[in-house]
What does this fold into?
Amino acid sequence: MSQACVSKYLNNKPYVSKKTKEKIKKAIEKLNYRPSAIARSLVSKKTNKIGVLVWDITNPYQTKIIRKIEEYKTLHNLHYDILLIDMKNKEGVGDKYINTMLENRVVGIVTTSDKISIDRIKFLKEIKLPIIFIGRRINVPDIDLDYVMVDNMKGAYSITKYLLNLGHRKIIHLTGPLNTSVSYDRLKGYEKAMKEFGIKDIKENLINLGDFTFESGTNAAKNIFSAKVWPTAIFCANDFSAFGVMDYCYKHDIKIPEDVSIAGFDDINFSSLSFINLTTVKQPIKKICETAAKALFEKIKTGDDKLVQIILEPELKIRKSTRAL
It folds into this structure.
């Protein structure tokens, strides 16, 4: 058989007779042949890979996003492989990871990191490689980028206002890294609510810088509870760091919520467990991932560059980690 004829059979193209198909099928079974994705990509200059760049794979929020993208791909019978790269959030700009994806000829990228340089973003636009930001956005002058995210500012505002309405005034906000859009928006939501209640000197007294990790929660708690005056509530920029604060409290006999109320953001799987019961802001992670995945695969399929900028509503989840004063 000619190479072209076998290629048509393998790619389900027409103009291969039934008799020829049967011969090729028997030959494949006898030789135990498997098509090489690498060889195909060298010929076609394309692969069936999509790049998934995550901010920190140890964070349950990030792993849930990966799982939801996989579930969407499987549900819709989409034959793409995922090239997963963990950026490790303490590192600077993620350009080298984008370069790795380009070297592996991915046909599209989704990312939970906004630490990508403007030059790299512009290059992706020039070569028309779709990239969609999940859970955050990035501002690049004169370039509109695709993102699907929750309204971070509104979510932070609502949970801070909830604590204020419970009577709390000494509310510490454990932020994420403030050079990211997520942390910045959540800080602004916190500040807005605090200012509405006439609370001044917010930055000087009530903000504790973190990096979204469990360890940042425990370290912040150590500093917070070593002070003479304790806060009555702590609002953490994400649930994972809130777990760190809670762990410190349990180990040092600080009762939650009797001694301090604790709130988070994300509503990851463990937050609703009975021994945690964390009051938090729920992100519609399933909807975020489904929307982003659908948009990405549609862009890959059609080449359509229609802008996707979607902000979804947060939901306040009240549990037992907070109480009224």
Summary: The chain has a mean pLDDT of 89.
